[in-house]
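Rather than argue in generalities, we reproduce a single protein record, letters for residues, whole numbers for local backbone shapes, just as it appears below:
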Amino acid sequence: MKTLLLAIWAVLAASAAMAQSDYVVSPGDTLRIEVLEDTTLNRNVIVLPDGRFSFPFAGTVQAGGRSLGQIEAAVGSAIASNFAAAPNVFASIVSLRQAEPARSSAARAPAPAPDPTISVFFLGEVASPGGQAVSPGTTFLQALALGGGFSNFAALKRVQIRRTNPATGAQTLYTINYNAVSQGAELRGNFVLQDGDVILVPQRRLFE
């Protein structure tokens, strides 16, 4: 009996996996993206109305109209430059878009447009790692305040901003001495953040 139950479970699991692999992602779906080589990148993402989502090191990734396998390939290709070997990326469905209930034409009213936001990500020695939705025009220092600041082990002289060009995948790295800035040094341009920017704070070295 136990063997029969295990066999039934295996068939159901395989069927569910096959159904997910054939599913075409739509705006409003919630996906789970996992990177085997760096579990700090693992997170749930919501596919925005334009069919895209933001992911660290990848910037924005097109998901609408694609299968999970195509999304895995797109994310893997976008973040590959950050790994010694091609990373293993897995995508799965957490929840599907909620269909809106039908309403009469008299009751329909245009919904107010949501305030625009961009996504930035905090990694390393920060108080609150993970993604943060901020307003366009948010600066590096403002984002730090929203992210809760640094941990006690942060290398404040080597704070990094990693920016990926969504069109080419090329990545630009900026290094900021936060100690100098906090003591009055000028932060050139104050680094207005862009969608998909990653703020990475390394761990302080011994005697640093």
Q: What stands out?
A: The beta strands are 30-35, 43-46, 52-55, 59-62, 89-95, 118-124, 130-134, 159-164, 171-176, 198-201. Residues 52 and 108 are 27 Å apart (CA to CA).
